Amino acid sequence: MAKKKLRVGILFGGKSGEHEISLRSARSILKAIDGKKYDVVELGITQQGRWLASGDSQALLGESTTPAAVTSEKSLTIASAAAEPGSGAGVDVVFPVLHGTFGEDGTIQGLFELADIPYVGSGVLGSSAGMDKDAMKRMFFAAGLPQTPHITLLRSEWRADPKKSTRLIEKSLTYPLFVKPANLGSSVGISKVKQRADLAPAMDLAASFDRKIVIEQGVGGPGVKPRELEVAVLGNDTPEASIVGEIVPAKEFYDYEAKYELNGADESVSIIPAKLTAAESKKIRAMAIAAFRACDCSGLARVDFLMAPARRSKKGKARPAEILLNEINTMPGFTSISMYPKLWQASGLTYKKLIDRLIELALERHKEKQQTTFTR
């Protein structure tokens, strides 16, 4: 008798500003996933937040992603969207390829926990901590991980007294600065600020995307362009780190346009493996695992670093290269050309096998959870 195939729901789309990136990731997974091992169900969510049945989910993945591509008006839940017509069957595991708000911030993970459904990726805490750059940095600080100086301001504080906020920022940090919404991904809403005149527009932009604004001091100081390094982490309680890769941005920093919109000679370049000493690579990989554990992550995450090159001070004193933790991304882009799968490919794990491993880790974590008693 043939072994029953796992029924895997690939969840994509959503209300986030990263909706289109989610569709790209889902298309790549659906193309690569092993049909001999899994029965696959497409689970789409529109930009308006409506769950779709399989047929409409497939339409969402097509060239047209406008609401007109969706034919059903029936409101669905994860259970009804995943069910075969009339069977009442659900899914064995969900792969939520949802990036950004409502996808990797702990909200959808809470739904999976309530429904008692195994799912790929971090749980509620790891997801929400990895999404909130302010909370993330607090956890990194508690774990003793090196970061660039930064402060956090609330949108209400900025709007109530911009002059006071500006004084606080300039007292705490030196230009250049990076101004970011605390809860968003794909570099949406991020600005590089070189002088006071550019600060207010950057703060207003970040405030339009989130109530918390993180302001970071540029690594290395004025005129220094740090290297942007990335590590892919895979696992649950005993995570592993990939080799280290480097991004050479097509623009001044790795913003949304540099990540997704520039092509050909203008696109950003990835270097895998990054040109580092053995000691530097070892240190960065160890820091990536420490960051993963600090945020209580599981399944997968991409950990990003900034490295200021070795240089001499104004007094001629040699300064070694400085490696600082930037952030963790608990559901990184997952197209076949995204850094996360490319780093594992270069580390010996193919894209198809990576999908298998993530599903295994989801089932492993759900099984471990069953050892917990929730009632007296």
Describe this entry's structure for a reader:
- The chain is of the alpha+beta class and 376 residues long.
- Helix content is 35%, strand content 22%.
- The chain is built from 13 helices and 14 strands.
- It has helices at residues 19-32, 54-61, 78-82, 107-115, 124-131, 133-142, 155-160, 162-172, 199-209, 256-261, 278-294, 339-346, 351-369; strands at 6-13, 38-45, 93-96, 150-154, 177-181, 191-193, 212-217, 227-235, 240-248, 269-271, 299-308, 311-312, 318-319, 322-329.
- The strands form four sheets. It has a five-stranded antiparallel sheet. The chain has a four-stranded antiparallel sheet with strand order 4-7-5-6.
- Strand 12 and strand 13 (318-319) form a beta hairpin.
- Helix 5 crosses helix 6 (133-142).
- The longest helix is centred in the last third of the chain and has 19 residues, at 351-369.
- The radius of gyration is 21 Å and the shape is globular.
- The protein starts with 5 loop residues before the first strand and ends in a 7-residue tail after the last helix.
Low-confidence stretches: 64-71, 84-88, 258-262
Termini Cα gap: 41 Å
Shape field: globular
Average predicted local confidence, pLDDT: 88
Order of helices and strands: EHEHHEHHHEHHEEHEEEHEHEEEEHH
> Biggest β-sheet, characterized?
5 strands, antiparallel
Q: Measured on Cα atoms, how large is the radius of gyration? A: 21 Å
Beta-strand percentage range: 15-25%
Separate helix tally: 13
| Total strands | 14
Structural class determined from secondary elements: alpha+beta
Helix percentage: 25-40%
- For the largest beta sheet, what order do the strands appear in spatially? 10-9-8-11-14
